[in-house]
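Hi support team,

I've been running sequence recovery on a batch of backbones for a student project. Most finish fine, but this one hangs at about 90% for roughly twenty minutes before it completes. I'm not sure whether the input is malformed or the queue is just slow. I've pasted the structure tokens below so you can try to reproduce it. Let me know if you need the job ID as well.

Thanks,
M.K.
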């Protein structure tokens, strides 16, 4: 069974800041992080499906997505704190 991801960004945050997040994804994440995140969130593939498609372990996919989402979360929090 694939590892469960704990999202670091809420759905509300994702919806309210979708354009900012898309720009952050393009500018701040590695190519691998972008690929896995888009497959997971946009294309709604499972961790296992992404792992099979990319010929890596499910734990690698999970870890890569978690690191990318954590990075986005930290950046977004910083941007929001400057905007307050």
């Amino acid at each position: 069974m694939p590892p469960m991801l704990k999202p670091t960004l809420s759905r509300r945050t994702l919806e309210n800041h979708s354009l900012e997040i898309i720009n952050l994804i393009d500018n701040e994440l590695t190519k691998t992080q972008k690929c896995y995140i888009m497959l997971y969130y946009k294309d709604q593939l499972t961790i296992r499906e992404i792992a099979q498609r990319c010929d890596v372990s499910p734990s690698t996919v999970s870890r890569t997505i978690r690191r990318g989402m954590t990075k986005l979360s930290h950046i977004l929090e910083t941007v929001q704190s400057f905007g307050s």
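--
Follow-up from support: It reproduced on our side and the slowdown came from queue contention, not your input. The mean pLDDT is 81. No action needed from you.
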